[in-house]
Amino acid sequence: MNLSVEIAGLKLKNPVMNASGTFGLSEYADFLDLNLLGAVVAKSVTLNPREGNPPPRIVETTCGAINSVGIQNEGAEDFVKNKAPAMKKFDTVFIASIAGLTVDEYAKVTDILERAENIHAYEVNVSCPNIEAGGKAFGMYERSTYEVVRAVRDRTKKPVIVKLSPNVTDIVAVAKAAVEGGADALTVANTYLAMAVDIETGRPILGNVLGGFSGPAIKPITLRMVYQVVNAVDIPVIASGGISCGRDALEYLLVGAKAVQVGLMNFSRPDIMLCIIDEIKTFMERKGIKDINDYIGSLKI
Amino acid sequence: MKISESKVIYNKKIGPGYHVLGFEAGWLEETEPGQFVMISTNRLEMPLRRPFTVYRLNEKKAEILYRVVGKGTMLFSQLEEGDMINVMGPLGKGFPVFEDKTVVLLSRGVGIASLGLLGERLKKTGCRVFTVASFSDRTRSLVDDYIKSFSDELITTFDEDGSSDVENIRFILDKIKPDVVYTCGSRRLIRLLQKLPYEAYVSLEERMGCGLGACLTCAVRTINGYKRACKDGPCFNVKEVIV
Prior knowledge:
Chain A is built from nine helices and 16 strands. Chain A is an alpha/beta fold. Chain A has one domain (about 5-50, about 70-190, about 215-295): Alpha-Beta Barrel (TIM Barrel), CATH 3.20.20.
């Protein structure tokens, strides 16, 4: 049985990886062997350290949660020096995630990350709703998406994966702008701009007021976007949105995603990605599917 | 630390909105005072676990003491004997434990839940344990036989008669002259302790995601920047935290 997939020249052992920011390279090693994952995506880094948003930073809502961490990180230099080397001992595709407040910052972060020895690809986070006031993100607009992707593309030969924002009028238009900017693959999608309020205190629950909504509740909406994007562009799409079991992952593969990312559910079940991989295998056995690539995009309409 | 399915042994209502949940947890025996567990009811509509300090350990079972504040704790309050929950723990950095000291456990409301295991341990290490427990009124007192069992002296204070006033708490502490104070449940009490000369520690609470130090959602403000309640805490020196 073959579970391996290829994305922009990267060979993944299987189509399951974590979503950026929902997984700790050291914290989760107790629960699962990172060698068993298709890839590991690091938390986004910016040029300079960011202390993140004021707490509370997370609130659960029915079938999901809203977070507003705000890309708390120690900066790109620290990542290259202290974080990336920890992945050297694993034989797993390692993807770094780039964030920034200006096009120039994305360019500078890329230059710094290029010095790391063991980064296989970049995911360009143009879509974090927690980094600028009002939830604004580069990924909300075609032009700024193009500019950021182009800036990263011009600085590296490694595969560039662009993580799109779902907070757009037309995801296909932004996807095409990313392709034009030189993207090798797309991740569809980041979290949905959302908020929660407390009727007892009369105040917002999150310190940042707004946050990004993820979890099982959003799966049908992201599934729709993956479907639309897969049918509009020629580069591979990685699906990310509300996956909590093998069946969810298989739904995304069915509509044409080459791989999937698991996000929120890593919090409550640190070993969930291994369960999902097993469930995909069981499904393939049951259906007599020898190669997962035969299943990907096999949706009949 | 591990993740395990666990059977609910009892779930007792002990006051208005207050419950004690007991569950099978032999593996939690090594839990340090102030450490916590993350509990899930395995329902997709509630994708996040809830953090609770271990209140008491007793013959291969663990107890948490909690107040119903939202949908999650409301659901927990409906658990019955034999129901299964999923427990991850023990987690986090607990309280420092000293020997042969005069200590005060200073709690507000359900904050006493974080000090039970600590009081029992401190009693065993030869400390003189003064428990100063503050509640809004007598119907909400959470002092039980367990708290009494390790308290050399027990002082309860209430809003209804003014005895829980910060100045009165200061007066009580100054009379005891403790070597160490442990607190949980009140920002007012943290601020008071920051002004007093006693060594003091607090168990902080914040909305939490993974409980493992990865997601960075349970940030608490300290003089050294944001720290993670789940990994760097939940127990901190009061001089370190900004409230």
